[in-house]
Amino acid sequence: xxxxxxxxxxVIDISPLLAKCDDFDMAEDAGVVEVVGKLDRxxxxxxxxxxxxxxxxxxxxxxVKEMTHQFFELPYExxxxxxxxxTAGYRGYQxxxxxxxxxxQDMHEAIDCYREFKQGxxxxxxxxxxxxxxxPGNPQEYKDLMEEYIKLCTDLSRNILRGISLALGGSPxxxxxxxxxxxxxxxxxxxxxxxxxxxxxxxxxxxxxGLLTLINQDDDKTALQVKNVDGDWIPxxxxxxxxxxxxxxxxxxLSNGVYQSxxxxxxxxxxxxxxxxxxxxxxxxxxxxxxxxxxxxxxxRKETSQVAKRVVYGQHLIxxxxxxxxxxxxxxxxxxxxxxxxVIDISPLVVKCDDANMAEDAGVAEVVGKLDRxxxxxxxxxxxxxxxxxxxxxxVRVMSHQFFELPYExxxxxxxxxAAGYRLFxxxxxYRGYQxxxxxxxxxxQDMHEAIDCYKEFKQGxxxxxxxxxxxxxxxPENPQEYKELMEEYIKLCIDLSRNILRGISLALGGSPxxxxxxxxxxxxxxxxxxxxxxxxxxxxxxxxxxxxxGLLSLINQDDDKTALQVRDLAGDWIPxxxxxxxxxxxxxxxxxxLSNGVYESxxxxxxxxxxxxxxxxxxxxxxxxxxxxxxxxxxxxxxxGKGTSQVFKRVVYGEHLVHKLQTTFQNLVxxx
Length: 673
What we know:
Layout lengths: L10 E3 L1 H5 L10 H16 L2 E5 L5 H15 L3 H4 L12 E3 L5 E2 L2 E2 L3 E6 L8 H4 L15 H26 L15 E10 L8 E6 L5 E6 L6 E4 L5 E3 L7 E5 L1 H6 L9 E4 L6 E11 L3 E2 L3 H6 L5 H4 L3 E2 H9 L21 E3 L1 H5 L10 H16 L2 E5 L5 H15 L3 H4 L12 E2 L2 E2 L3 E3 L5 E2 L2 E2 L3 E6 L8 H5 L14 H26 L15 E10 L8 E6 L5 E6 L6 E4 L5 E3 L7 E5 L1 H6 L9 E4 L6 E11 L3 E2 L3 H6 L12 E2 H12 L8
Parallel strand pairs: 1-2, 17-18
Antiparallel strand pairs: 2-12, 3-6, 4-5, 6-7, 7-14, 8-13, 9-12, 9-14, 10-11, 10-13, 15-16, 18-30, 19-20, 21-24, 22-23, 24-25, 25-32, 26-31, 27-30, 27-32, 28-29, 28-31, 33-34
Helix pairs in contact: 2-6, 3-6, 12-16, 13-16
């Protein structure tokens, strides 16, 4: 399914064809003949080409993209007003990750539109697509703009196909008999998030399943790639004012295989958001697509006529359209946020972190507003501008990789043992040191990761009977050398960073910066889990099952080149947390939910490492005092009396909560040396 072409797609000025498009004798015009020759060469060698001189103004093309950007910039809740539902005929908004190509999630969101038709017109096959297109109320006039654009694209596609029909040796109207008396169309309005991680697949490799495609893409971002006969991916560099045109599977069949549909994909390596509006011109919905007799006669040496089975276009479309599930209903333990987590530069907060009047600073106020929105809508956010060097963050992961690469026997030197300070508690062995793969349980199911577990050290007897199971020194490996010193420095930095973020969150909740630093955080506890997730060839192996964090605040330092962490949104959908180099992913836990009187929710998340490569993640968990009796703080009960959650929050002693969670997590803590 690849064709032979040079590293740049051909550019074809079709204005001579348009000037004669309604002239039955157009084939005799010298200008048309030249265009037809270029179309033939492009369709044989490439399957893709740029179209200029098409008669649609640059201003209109640009306005379509600008207003599309405006839609995708709306809050997630606003976009969900036109979400796809079973009753909406596969029409409307779909979030990031809903679309699948070759079984893998695509990193784009979209509005899907189809030609509207009367109920029952296309029988049982057409039922799933019945219904009107869903257009947003904002931006205003978007519907009118796009409906005009669709008419122009329909006319342009028909005229290009007349030229292609001539190129194949037929009349201009070969396709306009039984195949195109009542042509169907599809339009996908697509948004690709900007990313800092290279090679995130916005849309996986595929051919288009229809007849002819017109692509209107942003001028300043190269993301579309086309595969040539050598297997190389050639970038389709945007040319302002042009369309990229490509042929689809149905045209391959109709032409008797003379023209081949070509594999292409989208990889948006830009940090900027990218928009693409793709218009797909199709045959009649009920058309039985097979090689046209004239092309079988003119191209008898093509063997594809024997293997190209008759295809009913509508059935083919429905089968392809089932590449994404319908958005599910709202469910518990999920929060409402955009399809990408917010990114917050906290540097203004860090600069003023020891200033009692920090709330009066404009920069701090801006950060606090972002923290409030993120904690209310997501419970998760990226933190940048945190003051910890990217080199240091990376070194932590590099040395953690080195540890997990050691032979199993070497790692077992720091396994959890009685000498390491664990106690037998309700037949469970606890808790510091190396744990093998499969030892950790989430909701009773084994997690596919190994880990080193560390906790704040404290004197024997300090926390009474509950604390006994946590007594003992952390175990650090001798190899890699200096790992202990590196990680202890890292822990100090994470403690300071967590405290500063919590000061911002306290302000966001309407308190002073120090509301949490009274009886709750005079002697804060902490946990660190150094996690290793094996690379897998089987998709959707659960590295860590769905859970909320049981503490106060978490800082996640994850590998830059593997997306595995997923967060659950209000609709019950799992949103991938794409790594941003140098950032931390921060999320709130169960204790902060209680302290805030339920204003901020802890959010379900999980880890699925679909990469064949090993993944490392270092999770730092900042907690209350071990013996803190956690309940909604009075100031937040006063400020948020309408939440009503204070009645259902029982007082929780953090240490008891922690030990109970660990009992559940490590039910099968039995080492096999």
